[in-house]
């Protein structure tokens, strides 16, 4: 599989579409990798050179290779990847934790992002966006899941993460194709214990210059809607679309509507 070396580490990716077409980068979330966007590759590749990245230490890498599984490291990796492509600003799409990474790339490196798509970006809000001080609810849930993985109960940890993002029974309802992605990346949860994910702030949201599509699932857990509401209100150039018949895994639950919304937005930006 192709890769680009960023700061001494090969960032591998899956690709689709004409390499001469405008670049579109996809950034996966927790427990994911480049395969997380399999339902998007053909459809988005009809108009773009799509590159679905595997974040440092996600499959095909291994968490045992070392630490450094932080938001800041992955933001630097995505920015470095875009710079090494040498094709100017790109269209950037991130889901869940990948949405947070993509948000930070657009915040810190505005010259690299032409248009931004955030599919239920993960994280928390600070007080300037109506969040509670030192809430830490999401981080606490992921820490508990990581503790299970650390003692060898990977399935228990994966179930806990699935239920935090998808509600009771989410792991059992998850298609097998998504379960094996989680199993391949279970130990990356250990890295997220120390990722130092800052909450979203009003100042950061207001600084995003790129036109942004906010995507949410109609059947998702409430916490994702709260984040989307706050970002929609604070970011200067947003469009919001709700994907019917979809939970937090919206790009898998309803890929047809997801892909159509992304293509329509990017065609205008």
From TrEMBL:
Pfam families noted in UniProt: Abhydrolase_1
Keyword Kinase belongs to the record: no
Regions that span the bilayer: none
UniProt cross-references to InterPro entries, sorted A to Z: AB_hydrolase_1, AB_hydrolase_fold, Carboxylesterase_BioH
Assigned keywords, A-Z: Hydrolase
UniProt GO MF annotations: hydrolase activity
Every AB hydrolase-1 domain range: 22-255
The keyword Hydrolase belongs to this UniProt entry's keyword annotation: yes
Origin: domain of life: Bacteria
PANTHER family per the UniProt record, alphabetical: HYDROLASE ALPHA/BETA FOLD FAMILY (PTHR43194), PEROXISOMAL MEMBRANE PROTEIN LPX1 (PTHR43194:SF2)
Name of the featured protein: Alpha/beta hydrolase
Organism: Sediminicoccus rosea
Taxonomic classification: Bacteria, Pseudomonadati, Pseudomonadota, Alphaproteobacteria, Acetobacterales
């Amino acid at each position: 599989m192709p890769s680009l070396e960023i700061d001494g580490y090969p960032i591998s990716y899956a690709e689709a579409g004409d390499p001469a077409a405008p670049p579109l980068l996809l950034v996966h979330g927790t427990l994911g990798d480049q395969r997380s966007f399999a339902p998007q590759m053909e459809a988005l590749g009809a108009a773009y050179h799509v590159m679905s990245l595997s974040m440092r230490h996600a499959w095909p890498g291994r968490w045992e290779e070392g630490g450094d599984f932080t938001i800041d490291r992955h933001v630097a990796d995505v920015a470095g990847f875009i710079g090494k492509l040498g094709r100017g600003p790109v269209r950037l799409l991130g889901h869940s934790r990948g949405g947070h990474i993509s948000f930070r790339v657009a915040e810190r490196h505005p010259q690299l992002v032409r248009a931004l798509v955030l599919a239920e970006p993960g994280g928390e809000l600070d007080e300037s966006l109506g969040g509670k001080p030192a809430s830490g609810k999401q981080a606490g849930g992921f820490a508990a899941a990581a503790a299970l993985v650390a003692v060898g109960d990977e399935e228990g940890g994966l179930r806990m993460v699935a239920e935090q993002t998808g509600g009771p029974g989410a792991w059992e309802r998850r298609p097998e194709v998504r379960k094996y992605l989680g199993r391949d990346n279970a130990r990356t949860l250990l890295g997220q214990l120390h990722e130092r994910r800052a909450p979203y702030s009003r100042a950061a949201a207001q600084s995003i210059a790129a036109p942004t599509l906010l995507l949410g699932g109609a059947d998702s857990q409430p916490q994702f809607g709260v984040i989307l509401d706050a970002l929609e209100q604070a970011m200067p150039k947003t469009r919001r679309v709700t994907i019917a018949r979809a939970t937090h895994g919206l790009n898998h639950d309803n890929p047809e509507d997801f892909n159509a919304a992304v293509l329509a937005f990017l065609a205008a930006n």
